[in-house]
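Record filed here:
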Amino acid sequence: MPCLESRYLPISDRLDLLVNDEDFADGEKVQASMQSYHELIKSFRLLDYSAIGTLEVPSALEFLYSKNSIDFAIETVLEAVDEVPLWVREWNLAKKAFSSRDAASALQHYKKSLEAAKYSAGPLFIVFYIEICAFCKHQYQELKNENEEHLFDRFYETLGGDASKYAILIGYAPRSSRDPKTLMPKSVAPNKSASLLYKIDSKMKMLS
């Protein structure tokens, strides 16, 4: 059970503590904290906030903790506004390039989209981040099958690394700490990591 001091933590951090609680079973405590979080946001009139016009986007909590919110159709974004944001345009071009099996072009468009998405994508960045991770993981598997995995660091590591750094910075992905016994890094929110990995692997299957 999280310590009493956790009540002084931001609600989003308390959710991570609750989800990581080994005794957690039915989700009632997480649901209660989510409700509290929603009420707080409503008080600031931010619950329906979208970085893309009036487009209604699920909250970051829903994207992170719901197994059903793995994807968000980019067509919804493209049809929502007259002037599509640069990061969405580049994201769409990346998806089209990848579907055409043009990985090199997809890589360049993902890079451009990532730079433009920072501080403007809102909760949709989680969907975008998951797709970037799935894309990088897919490309690593392709290179490995061709005995060329040594090329991964040269072409794809920067994209995945930059996306992860930003996701950690804004709290969408958990940071890691060093285990004092093994000196190896470990996630400070293992269940959150497991949820993201599930979504990434699910997305990768969709890309394959």
Remarks:
- Residues 124-145 form the longest helix (22 residues).
- The beta strands are 176-178, 185-187.
- Residues 57-207 form one domain.
- Confidence is low (pLDDT under 50) at residues 1-9, 44-49.
